[in-house]
Amino acid sequence: MQNWQYSQIVYQIFVDRFNRGKSFEEKVKKGFYGRDGGIVRKWEELPKRESRGLEFFGGDLEGIIEKIDYIKNLGINSIYLTPIFLAATNHKYDTHDFSVDPQFGDEQILAKLFEEAHKREIRVILDGVFNHVGVDGIWFNKSKKYGNGGAYNDPSSPFKDFFEFKTWPNEYRSWIDIKLLPELNLQNETLRKLLFTDENSIIKRYLKMGADGWRLDCAHDLGHEINSLIVESARSVKEDAYVVGEVSGYPDEWLKLSKLDGVMNYYFSELLINTLNENFEPQLLKKGFDRMVEENGIASLSKSWNMISSHDTPRMNSLLKDRISKEIAIAFQIAYPGIPFLYYGEENGMNGDGDPDNRRPMVWDDKKWDWDFREFVLKAFDVRKNQPALNGGNYLKLDFKTGSPVVGFARYTSDPKDTIFFFANLSNSNVVEKIPIPFAYFMHHTQMERILGSGEALARVSEINFEMPSKSFGIFKFVPRFSMYRMYKSIK
């Protein structure tokens, strides 16, 4: 039912910053970008913090459609869009109304995006912001942008119970106490129906239109009950609908109690980045990764997003200090259980520090691309795509000698020939080791081929001898080269 979920390679698009479609100038003339005091920037400019989310570069859904083959050629098969619904800001996490924002297009253009993506076997995941809305949105309407009604202005408003007031109208619960983002009272049954459960609810309507799943903003704030309700509602429309949650903590409870297909795996990200930056010892990373598989289970972990950077973090060039660290990070993304997740432009080495610098417009001038890194990313994604063990396969914990700077594991399926071995030497010295392999179907009379990275590995009887250069990784696979002999021919 859910095989496509295991084989995803996800590309995150911050819609306003990816590509302008053909209707951009027309939308400027119609004042779409200036309606809430917004200003239009030139594509080559850098985002400015003082704009407070009200500067627009004009990326839209048409622009994504125009670049859909670019995305396909990266090896991507899932696109995650930051919110596309009506809101004042460029990021749209302050929803006014759950209709497509005219700055980005309309429902016809969205349906066309679904169609064009699906023609290319690319899935599209929408961002659902259901924990809070914008203070000036239709339901709250503090500024009276939508007339004299709304929860803030009218104590008898049908929307008043969509929010939680301590003292009406000025003391209300809001996301991390930011008064611009009043939180929704998701215990309200009418609101639940509008968002989740009615046949024309937001969750169901966009899935019926062609969306393939939802990323749940602030899933840790929504809580297990609401997350589970969303999953149930999505499944009632599409049996293989994918629901992933933004969770800043450890995955286990969110995967088990919220019934999410996966989480944005920040634990993966923090362990990996801190180790590559030499804040953690390599063996802490190894223990953390082994523990995560043991405690979370391979099935749910394999459908979680292995993140490095996103619209909420600095870009890779700021997070990691050198090229080899970036390559090792990508290698862990494709080899460790989970879904590789790439923030737009990272394939070309785009720069960017914290918000809003990390949300620069996409660089389309290929003379400014880091072509060597781009080539590496495409090779890595090709390995991920073509190796069955890396697409939902099992995980084998490997043991190394005490104090070893090597982090490694194996991935396998029911076919021994699919088995993959991953080693990363995170030290500044060459490493030569031999390790026992606790695997019943270890192919000991075969050669081992390096399919990505560097280093050498040799299969012995129930052990591997390997040599890894300093600061390197290698992905290895059995290569039986016998003319007639075949090991384990009766086990399948």
Descriptive overview:
- The structure is a single chain.
- Strands 1-4-7-10-11-12-13-14 form an eight-stranded parallel barrel, surrounded by four helices. Strands 15-16-17-22-19 form a five-stranded antiparallel sheet. A three-stranded antiparallel sheet has the order 18-21-20, with no helix packed on it.
- With 492 residues, the protein is an alpha/beta fold.
- It starts with a helix and ends in a 13-residue tail after the last strand.
- It is built from 15 helices and 22 strands.
- Helix 14 (323-335) runs parallel beside helix 15.
- 28% of the residues lie in helices and 20% in strands.
- The longest helix has 19 residues, at 219-237.
TL;DR of this structure?
The protein is an alpha/beta fold and 492 residues long. It has helices at residues 3-6, 24-29, 61-66, 68-73, 107-119, 189-197, 202-209, 219-237, 252-256, 266-276, 282-296, 298-301, 316-319, 323-335, 371-386, and strands spanning 10-13, 39-40, 55-56, 78-81, 85-87, 95-100, 123-128, 165-167, 171-172, 213-216, 242-245, 262-265, 305-306, 339-343, 394-397, 406-412, 420-425, 431-436, 447-453, 456-460, 463-468, 472-479.
